[in-house]
Structures are given as structure tokens and as C-alpha cells.
Amino acid sequence: MNILVVGDLMIDHYLWGSCERISPEAPVQVVDIAKETAVLGGAGNVINNLKSLGAEVSVASVIGDDENGAELTGMLQDISVDTSNLVIQEGRHTSKKSRIIAVSQQILRYDKESKDDIEAASTKNIVESLKNNIEEYDAIILSDYGKGVLTEELCQAVISLAKSKNKKVLVDPKGKDFSKYKGAYLLTPNKKEAQIATEIDIVDENSLTDALLKLKQECDLDISMITLSEDGIATYDEKLHISPTVAKEVFDVTGAGDTVIASMAYALSLGKSIEDSAAFANLAAGVVVGKIGSATVTIDEIKEYEASLHKSTSDAHIKSFEDIKRLVDRYKVNGKKVVFTNGCFDILHVGHVKYLQVAKSFGDILIVGLNSDESVSRLKGPTRPVNIAEDRAYLLAALEAVDFVVPFEDDTPYELIKMIEPDVLVKGGDYEGKVVVGTEFAKELKLVDFVDGKSTTKTIEKIQGQTC
């Protein structure tokens, strides 16, 4: 899919250092700068979110003929964003916000930017450019940061052009007058912004519905939407729908609005309903508010987050070698402790469950390697397994203690352990004094005693005894 982002672009620039003295020239701190970083800000954060979700992205905006404009263009091209709709306006200052950080504390910010409305000629250039390629886009996002790009003239021109080609326009609005966005598919104001724009105090479902209806009617929207922070996302087509929030921990809400509109556009472009798109956006927002700073989210992170909320099916927890390698690499980067164990798990019983619960207690993520049907037969005899691998994997993946199940074909999980390099390798207590395959790839080996009298073999014997 290809999504067009139109809006205010900026560079978020950071100067990182330490402060150990006061200037002799004035009572101010002296910061020794150790490093500089720069990331896309404003509408650029929407672009980053779309890219991380896997979308192709094009951008339309106005920048200055200055050093910051050249830097910003390069940053966009570095992440393969189509910049053919960028317009350079002579004399305009490209937005750059510089922050000085000392000992993890922001002590100063200084901005260089133009906030005046863009010139009529710039608007005309953008519109003429979009007339030639509007059909290429699956959705259009207007990301308004109030820096002068999204004038009423440009907004209405883009919305009119998009509607003529049956393209959805989603708007992250700014200010208290939303009339310049009239005719869009939906707006994504938060509760405070919606209250100001509608002059309705949202205190219950009735007032929420009134605000949604007023926005829908006055702005001629297909769908009316208000984000409600910890209460989720409210939408209104023919009736009120509320998609409840799914955030477990909130560390920083910076950029959450950008994530919501990016994920809504992404989901709608896939043909999802407005309710399903709102649920998807809630999951995406739940991931990013658990991170520090303006953040992005990937499809894998959303799937994992959904799984952690026990809202996913067992299928989502069954992974291939390739999938688990990618997941493990990211978990390790984020400081998560990975635990691995394996087995046949032919007839799941209480001994298995208690063993897996203990294994999970040794870390953050429990991965279970599962012997294929052929390897179970080689290990246990021709009458085994009783249950096929697909069924065994599904049942294991349904357990709360198990994060992922990875089937393997060999008699031992040597290659799987070698690839994962777990922090903790767990085996049954009957391996005391024996060689455990893959130990050399794990940081630690833990042996867990089985529950007395509980085993697949004994279960089968009991069943056979009762049926004789």
C-alpha cells in the first residue's frame, strides 16, 4: 500500500551532554556536548509510524531553501519516502527544534522555523503535483502541527481531489476551528480538542455522542471519531462505538496521536472496518505509550502485545524458525530474558503445566520447542504420538505460561537452541548428571522436577486399562 502524508515537517534535534559547572560569564549551566542526534518530527513521526508498519509512504509539504530543508529531505530519502511532492519555498525556514539534554533532563529548547501560511504559489504547486499521482495512494493523512502548511485552501483542495478519486482522507486536526477539514473521511481529535471545537463538555456517553454528531455534521465527515486516552477510541457512523484502551503501562504519551492516525490509515487501507481499525489503533497506541519518547510500532510488536493481553488465538503463538529468530533478537535488544525448553507434550497433563509454569518463572519469555510427529515416533515408538503436532502445538500455545511454540523436525532441538541462544535452558529433573543438548549455547541450565505420577505414558496406560 502507498499512503500520502500532507503536513508540517520538522527536524527534532537533540544535543546530549553532561553538566558539571556554572558559567563564570552568567548564572547558567555549561553543558559539555557528547553527541548529537536528529529524527523526523511533526508529520515526520506519522511517516515513521507508517514505515514501521510496512507501508510505502509519500509526502507532500513545503520546506525552505535552507540547510535544514536539505537535511530533512535527506532524512526522508534515507528511509525510502517519496519526496516528489515536496515544494521548496524561497525564504521559508524549515522547522528545526533543538533540545539540550543533560543528565537525562531537558534544560533548554530553541526553535528555528517559519509559522506563516505557505504562499499561494506553493499551494498551487502541491495541488498540481498531486493531480498527476493521486490515484497511486490508498489513503491520505493530513497531519496538522499549526506551522502554516495546511491552510484552508490546501486542505480543501486535497480533500476535493481525493474525494473525486474515492480516496479516504484522515486528519489529525489543530486549533479550535475544524471547518477547513470539511469533507474529510474522519478526524482524530483527542477529548480536549473535541470539547474545544464543539463547545460540548464530554462527561458521559450522551455528551460524547452529541460531540461526535456535531463534528460529523458540521465537518461533513463519513465517520466521526474522538480519542479518549485511557478510555479508548470512540467512533460514530450510524451509532456510537467505543473501542476500549488496551495499554498495560503508560510511560510516555508523546507521539501517541501520530501512531493512532497512522495505524487507522493503515488498517483502513487493508479494507478493515472502522471498528476493527479502531481496535488495531488501540493496540498500536498501547505499544507506543509503553516506550519512552516519540515512538513507532511494528506489526510484530502489535501481534505480540495482543498475545500478551490474551486477546489472540493460539495460532499467533506458533512460530517458524525464521519468525522466532527475529522475535528473540528484538527481545534481547530490549533486555528481555529468554527461556527455552522442549519436549513431545503428547497428551497435555498437569505435570506439563506445572513444569512450564516453573520454566516461565526463570525469565520473561518462554519458548517451547516441540518435536514433530516423526521425531516423536523415533523417540517413543511407532504408536506415538497420540496427538498430531498441530494439535499439540495449539494446546501448548493456549497456556498462559507459554509465549511461543516452535515445532522442529530433528530428534533434538540442537539447531533451534543454537539459533536462539537462550538465557536459560530448562530440562526435566531426570537429566541430573546427564548431558543436555545445547547447553553450550545457553547462559544457564535449570533442571525442574516433574510431578510424581504424572506422565503421558501413565495416562495412556490408565486409558488402556479402563478400555480393556
Automatic annotation (TrEMBL):
Name under which the protein is recorded: Bifunctional protein HldE
GO cellular component: cytosol
Taxon lineage: Bacteria, Pseudomonadati, Campylobacterota, Epsilonproteobacteria, Campylobacterales
The reaction(s) this protein catalyses: D-glycero-beta-D-manno-heptose 1-phosphate + ATP + H(+) = ADP-D-glycero-beta-D-manno-heptose + diphosphate; D-glycero-beta-D-manno-heptose 7-phosphate + ATP = D-glycero-beta-D-manno-heptose 1,7-bisphosphate + ADP + H(+)
EC number(s) reported in the record: 2.7.1.167, 2.7.7.70
InterPro entries linked: Bifunc_HldE, Cyt_trans-like, PfkB_dom, RfaE_dom_I, RfaE_dom_II, Ribokinase-like, Rossmann-like_a/b/a_fold
GO molecular function: ATP binding; heptose 7-phosphate kinase activity; heptose-1-phosphate adenylyltransferase activity; phosphotransferase activity, alcohol group as acceptor
Pathway: Nucleotide-sugar biosynthesis; ADP-L-glycero-beta-D-manno-heptose biosynthesis; ADP-L-glycero-beta-D-manno-heptose from D-glycero-beta-D-manno-heptose 7-phosphate: step 1/4; Nucleotide-sugar biosynthesis; ADP-L-glycero-beta-D-manno-heptose biosynthesis; ADP-L-glycero-beta-D-manno-heptose from D-glycero-beta-D-manno-heptose 7-phosphate: step 3/4
Keyword hit for NAD: no
Pfam families: CTP_transf_like, PfkB
Region (Ribokinase): 1-312
Task performed by this protein: Catalyzes the ADP transfer from ATP to D-glycero-beta-D-manno-heptose 1-phosphate, yielding ADP-D-glycero-beta-D-manno-heptose.
UniProtKB keywords: ATP-binding, Carbohydrate metabolism, Kinase, Multifunctional enzyme, Nucleotide-binding, Nucleotidyltransferase, Transferase
Lineage top rank: taxon: Bacteria
Gene, per the UniProt record: rfaE1
Spans annotated as Cytidylyltransferase: 340-468
Enzyme class at the top of the EC tree: transferase
Residue ranges annotated for the Carbohydrate kinase PfkB domain, each copy included: 3-296
PANTHER family reported for this sequence: BIFUNCTIONAL PROTEIN HLDE
Residues binding ATP: N190, K191, K192, E193
